[in-house]
Amino acid sequence: MLKLLKSLADPSRLRLTAVLLRGEFTVQELTRIFNMGQSRISRHLKILTEAGVLTVKCQGTWSYYRVGAGNDFFNAIRPALEHELESLSERAEDLAALAMVLEERRRRSQEFFDRHARQWDDLARTLLPVPEYRMQLLKQVPINSAILEIGIGTGGLLTELAAWSSKVIGVDHSPAMLEEARRRLENGGVRDVELRLGEMTHLPLSDSSVECVVANMVLHHAADPATVLAEIRRVLVSGGFLLLADLARHEREAAREQLADQWLGFEQTELESWLAAAGFADVLCERIEGKAGQAAVLIVKSRK
Ligand SMILES: C[S@@+](CC[C@H](N)C(=O)[O-])C[C@H]1O[C@@H](n2cnc3c(N)ncnc32)[C@H](O)[C@@H]1O
User: Fold this and answer.
1) What is the CATH number of the domain that holds 38?
2) Same domain, 157 and 65
3) For residue 104, is pLDDT > 70?
4) Which one of 60, 204, 240, 252 is CB 3.0 to 4.6 Å from 236, fit for a cystine?
5) Are 163 and 84 part of one and the same domain?
6) What gap in Å lies between CA 100 and CA 150, rounded to an integer?
7) Cβ of 134 less than 6 Å from ligand 1
8) Are strands 147-150 and 210-216 parallel, antiparallel or unpaired?
């Protein structure tokens, strides 16, 4: 207890804790948020980690720091601490800097997809898992429900979803990818699918407006996955389903450059804890092993 309290008894470490309660960041990102040198940030992170306030998530050569849940004493004082940290004098400034770093992550992904829209199908064919798992995903989509697909890419899955229901909306934040999807739908004679330009953290839909949200291979592009899951829940009707397919944790670091991946896949436990925090229930997760050295896929079904 003494070690933990001592670690928090420092203005910079309180600010760091306050920011890391809002998301996961690398040392480099934290140096930008706080405008502090790397060695100073690293020293504070070490003290907080050793005291059990923070944990480190390693993804390839990158390490993300986040507030941990493994220390009982910290968990007990966390609600009061979180409340007090809101009134730190630098709070507004720190939140603005944090938003800027998340915006950089988001912009990097959008620029990548705008630039590679035309070649995306070829890139995906060689670098993403064989889409056999998609049938597992599609089988779980309730027939004739109002469906939203987020991050539609060039519309491959969207075209298949259109056979499931006459009320399908697709959202993507890349105008170039939306254009490719529009072309594919037209060429396939698929009508009645509505395409909308939008961010998965601010979906262009009203509250409780769809019965099923499908997110296939998109969460690993999210600047802040937990926020996306909360936003998905907002647009689902009560009892509506989220169907998510994404990469299981892998070590293919090249995916950051080749595919603009923000996250090298996910652990089942972290998806489950984000879903629980966002208020989802009945989480079912299935792992499908990749063939011929391909990454494994996690398929998650969950209810609002
Ligand atoms: C790998 S592709 C998804 C493929 C598609 N779901 C499928 O099944 O064929 C990822 C897509 O997510 C979109 N995307 C990435 N970040 C996004 C965001 N923050 N908001 C909306 N769309 C996003 C990208 O523009 C891209 O089209």
Assistant:
1) 1.10.10.10
2) no
3) yes
4) 240
5) no
6) 23
7) no
8) parallel
